[in-house]
Amino acid sequence: MKTFAAIDVGSYELAMKIVEISAKGGIREIDHIRHRIDLGTDTFVTGKISNERVDELCRVLRDYGEIMRGYKVDQYRAYGTSAFRETKNRVIVLDQIKQRTGINIEVLSNSEQRFLNYKAIASIGDDFNRVIEKGTAIVDIGGGSIQVSLFDKDTLMTTQNMRLGVLRLQDRLGRLNIRPEQNESMLDEIVSAQLAVFKKLYLKDKVIENIIVVDDYVSAVIGRNVAGLEQNSVEADAMEKFLERVRLKSVQEVSRILDMPEENVPLMFISGVLVNRIVKVMGAKLIWIPGVTLCDGIAYEYGENSALIRPDHDFEQDIVACARNISKRYMGSRRRSETLEKIALTIYDSMKKVHGMGRRERLLLRIATLLHDCGKYISLSNLGECSYNIIMSTEIIGLSHVEREIVANVVKYNHMDFDYYEAMGQDRFLDQRDYLTIAKLTAILKIANALDRSHKQKFKDVRTALRDEQLIITVDSSQDITLEKGLFAKRAEFFEEVYSVRPVIRQKD
What is the C-alpha to C-alpha distance for residues 434 and 333, in angstroms, rounded to an integer? Predict the structure, then answer.
């Protein structure tokens, strides 16, 4: 059993959950501490976190450190989200916090943050699996943006981020200098424009029956004996009626009825309008609010990585499904991708003792095979660069920014001559370890690509065996493979340079 602390340094709140995690009992919450701190307004308005906010943040984090010591916490993770992602003085602020409190804050990319929230929802287990059997959208509402992820028959189809977070929208409304009664109509105009584009591109003929909402405000009123909102799942029209009642009352009245700080009421209203508008656009019938937070996702991932928790849901498959749908959007050949995937993973698995990489790198290679030709949608002659730009501009939920950079470079150099570290690293956030991962995965993908250069899937079976300083690739085919053999040599040179192993192709009689 482990005692673990999950710290969420959010845009408008600093939260910490202390939990006990064990293989037998799962995750059990011991304490949940929250402190209101408005980091997001600083960042979204000025681009920086002010000294006053840093002082307050350090003071509270020192208190959290004392609480952790009191509970004899074994491990902790502290994550910053959009307020830190978008601040210009991030490196300075993070260093100050580390020096003054001893707590190290890691900044999550948007896709990492949303994936943790998604894990928090999935950790509920049977309820989650039951809900996503039908068309479902997860709406994750943050301070700076919202994330909308679409599921169909248990499969993650797409996920998109929109800069419609509650603090950002509150700031926009404040700049308009309008009367309070105009807020909802203005919100509706701002939100509807982006949702209309989302609907046109991603919904089409999809039927969405359920909306799963993750936020800090609408979630807070569920179960507070508000008429129509007593349960964690409500009919869609109950949310609209609730908003109508809130609209007619003063901030002070709503604060008293819902037992909510007055400064949170406008944000709760914005969040409610967002949910209501999304429900209407999608035609959903049911809203499910599981009441989980980022801290739950942080704790779940720690338990998963520590082998204390066995996931009921295959999260890796969600990342792969997301990549498959990106490939489909850019007219990628599924049959070709599946062939490349099979060959590349066969080579990867046979080279374990040589390449020294693990399961995560194998996943990145798999994604690279699925997205290997996405750039052809833009240009056939500049396939490498166009593929790189598409991947770097497209969010893949569950991957960090660096992991996406690795995938994008592997795909790029599959089509182009490889750039060495000094040339590649100038304008990238890549260290030498990342560079070596790119080189190793690129070498494998180049060989896999050479074995299907004609795009005709000539090989019924590909087997690999590592013998001495050679990788013997035995192919089963009755067809002429002269083209594959001719193009194999140059790609084999790069593979040998990276691994000091010479790949040799042999055709089975």
Answer: 28
How high does pLDDT run on average in the chain? Answer: 87
Dihedral of CA 232/236/241/242: which sign? positive
| 2-108 shares its CATH topology with 124-291 | yes
For 507, half-sphere exposure in the C-beta direction (CA atoms, 13 angstrom radius) is 12
Torsion of CA 420, 422, 427, 429, to 10 degrees: 80
99's CB contacts (< 8 A; 6+ apart) are none
Q: Map tokens 């980022």 to a residue.
A: 294
Place of tokens 């070498």: 443
3-27 core/surface letters (b: 16 or more CB in 10 A; e: else) = bbbbbbbbbbbbbbbbbbbeeeebb
Give the CATH superfamily of 317-507: Hypothetical protein af1432 (1.10.3210.10)
Quote the CATH superfamily of domain 124-291: Exopolyphosphatase. Domain 2 (3.30.420.150)
Quick one: average pLDDT of 140-159? 86
Q: What's the pLDDT at 225?
A: 45
Residues facing residue 150 across a β-bridge: 137, 158
Helix axes 236-247, 265-282, angle to 10 degrees: 140
Q: What single letter denotes the amino acid at residue 305?
A: N
* Three-state secondary structure readout of 409-443: HHHHHHHCCCCCHHHHCCCCCCCHHHHHHHHHHHH
- Which of the two residues, 267 and 367, has the higher pLDDT score? 367
Return the DSSP state at 375.
G
Q: Has residue 357 got a pLDDT over 90?
A: yes
What's the predicted TM-score (pTM) here? Answer: 0.82
- Give CA–CA dist 495/505, Å, rounded: 13
User: Is residue 419 scored above 80 in pLDDT?
Assistant: yes
Architecture of domain 2-108 in this structure: 2-Layer Sandwich (3.30)
Where do the domains of the chain lie?
2-108, 124-291, 317-507
Could you tell me the strand order of the sheet in which 26-36 lies?
Answer: 26-36, 13-22, 2-9, 75-80, 105-107
- Alpha helix (H) ranges present in 132-285? 166-176, 183-198, 218-221, 236-247, 251-258, 265-282
Identify the weakest region by mean pLDDT among 102-106, 238-242, 505-509: 505-509
Asked if 161 and 145 count as a contact pair (C-beta separation under 8 A), the reply is: yes
Helix (H, G, I), strand (E, B) or coil at 47: coil
Secondary structure (3-state) at 174: helix
Dihedral of CA atoms 132, 137, 140, 141 in degrees, nearest 10, equals: -150
Q: How do strand 210-214 and strand 286-288 relate by DSSP bridges?
A: parallel
Closest by CA to 169, choosing from 300, 274, 246, 325, is 274
Q: Mark out the alpha helices in 38-86 (DSSP H runs).
A: 39-46, 51-70, 82-85
